[in-house]
Amino acid sequence: MANNKKILVINPWIYDFTAYDFWVRPLGLLYLVSLLRRLPEVEVYFLDCLDRSHPGLPHAPRVKEDGRGPFPKEEVPKPEVIKDIPRKFSRYGLPVSIFRQELRRLPLPDLVLVGCVMTYWYPGVQAVIDIIRQEIGSVPVVLGGIYATLLPEHARRHSGADVVVEGPAEKALSIIWEILGRRSGDSSDLTISADDYYWPYYAVLRSKDVLPVETSQGCPLHCTFCASRKLNPNFKQNPAEEVIKFLEMSYRQFAPRHFVFYDDALLVNKDNHIKVILREIIRRGIKAFFHTPNGLQVREIDEEIALLFHRAGFRSLFLSQESFDEAILARCSRKSSPEALPPAMNFLTKAGYRPEEINVYLLVGLPDQEAESVRESILEVKKLGARPRLAFFSPVPGTSEWEHLIQTGKLKKNSDPLLQNKILFPYLWSKITPDKLLELKQLALGNKPSASV
Q1: Looking at the chain, which terminus has fewer C-beta neighbours within 10 angstroms, N or C?
Q2: For residue 82, is pLDDT > 90?
Q3: Which residues contact 7 (CB under 8 A, 6 or more apart)?
Q4: What are the chain's domains?
């Protein structure tokens, strides 16, 4: 054990105008830990800056019945590029003092791996790496994740990492092996085949009450605002029997109260995939609550799947309607149509869901989108008794909507990723002003609708 190489994996802070634990778990890093544990003579340690269950926190975290809750936060100065935005800016997660204590408590690592999800959360990466340099010194730091994949050059110039790895976790293995001074022939575990199914390693999470699940990678659809296909060009579903085997094992081992499905396309090939999984959840007596925060394809909801969802314990259903504006749907998304939601709602309510339990995502902030279009969509959802959920548009590098903003001069290709923040559209490029957005939010929350916005 003394000669084993020690790898420290870190989930960094969120620096943002707002952040909430909407079942947020570092799924990509949990996959990476699973892969690293295959390597011989390697010890893996995990440090989560977003750990709301850390015993050192000055106040016990508030937790809703469904497992969600606010992150600890501390207001910090706004970066120069967003200094004029009239919103407070904060660091979300563990206090810096606790992070430093954790670094000092853990064995001195031979390598540090950092992940980052949102491109505009890169200040959290910078802060983590700065403190690593102060506490540990010149240990090699490797950065991966969505930020590194979508904006690799920015990450190389500004993150502070020694190495930036684009792409999925398995791509980093050979790089990590080389940094650790191992010869390529020292291990046969560096290659992951297309048929090799591996799963997140939950054991490193302090709290296992909420566990993230992904039954597929990527998405076969072409929504203009989403980078799923850029991050995972080939849509791949894990075999239903492998998924249920992992779910049951995790349920028996960790006894979570909640499983959260992170799939971008959970209902694709539904008869041979999710329906099989749901039947087995019921048959095997997995008594957890299930949630779908990434949104479900509305037109794929039929009578059988609605019944299976309810019987299996799916309590938080989020539907990706996106809009009732046919022009916006034709341009942006094939997930739904104006006619798709009423029958889906009918199937779900017949299965036992109350209308107000069903959440319906509506996009707001798309380039050239009118406030009236959003208002009409909100009212259509409310007519059906469901809960409208405004999904704020963020310009994701590599998407069609990103290119549209570049071509129209509303964003520059090399502009600071902080300008990709979903909070900024009413201040920078949208026809929907902050005042109009506030009216839309009040309408969606159930306040009296105004005559127009």
Answers
A1: N
A2: yes
A3: 36, 42, 43, 44, 45, 109, 110, 111, 112, 113, 176, 180
A4: 5-185 (3.40.50.280), 208-445 (3.20.20.70)
